[in-house]
Write a structure and sequence with these properties.
The protein is built from seven helices and four strands. A four-stranded parallel β-sheet has the order 2-1-3-4, sandwiched between helices. Strand 1, helix 2 and strand 2 form a beta-alpha-beta unit. Helix 1 packs parallel to helix 5, helix 1 crosses helix 6 and helix 1 packs antiparallel against helix 7.
Length: about 200
């Protein structure tokens, strides 16, 4: 019986290790994806700045908690726009929690770019647009195709939420902290059972 328990513990630990390795590899993949998107955005912006070297008007866009007027964030965005050699042409704001295609403020950003009233957008970080990397890339390419700037105060790989984003991304596909915790609890329970049996019956 002890041999069987040891086999269970060994197999469970191996499965837990595989999940941890999988999570780690996917985290690294998400980080490399952020670097790729950062390079793509930098390339787009460089080409646009070379085509249009004069200062350009960009929309300052913020996503805030309900009840927050965003004045502090907008001030930071305006300062950063000027630091990049551009100016704030409009402000747009949404409440946190909605995807980009359901945000009226983000639709305003797109409309001002599409209609030629602004030449791009500046946001605090990538997650302001979307925490989903595929969705973010779609928006990035939409701006690039229209020779519109997409400026970030904090680059994709510098985002304060970057370490947690891959875990949210993993969890949305059924692999994340809950699965790791379940594996750890199972290993702990089986080990405790084995120790109890050995204490109660040393002859096993």
């Amino acid at each position: 019986m002890v041999g069987s328990l040891r086999k269970v513990v060994r197999n469970t630990a191996r499965a837990g290790g595989m999940n941890l390795a999988t999570n780690r590899s996917r985290q690294l993949f998400a980080t490399s994806e952020k670097q790729r998107l950062q390079d793509l955005r930098a390339s787009h912006n460089q080409c646009i700045n070379e085509l249009f070297p004069t200062p350009r008007g960009v929309v300052a866009y913020a996503v805030t908690a309900d009840g927050n007027d965003g004045s502090k964030e907008f001030s930071q965005l305006r300062q950063q726009a000027q630091a990049h050699g551009h100016f704030d042409s409009h402000d747009a704001q949404d409440i946190r929690g909605c995807p980009p295609n359901e945000r009226s403020g983000w639709e305003t950003v797109r409309a001002t770019v599409y209609e030629g009233f602004s030449n791009g957008v500046i946001v605090l970080e990538q997650e302001t647009i979307s925490s989903d990397l595929e969705s973010y890339e779609q928006e990035l390419r939409w701006f690039g195709e229209r020779n519109a700037l997409l400026l970030l105060v904090r680059a994709e790989t510098k985002s304060k939420r970057s370490p947690r984003s891959p875990l949210r991304w993993l969890d949305s596909r059924g692999i994340g902290w809950r699965q790791i915790a379940a594996q750890v609890l199972l290993i702990t329970a089986v080990t405790a059972l084995m120790v109890t049996l050995l204490v109660n019956d040393p002859s096993l």
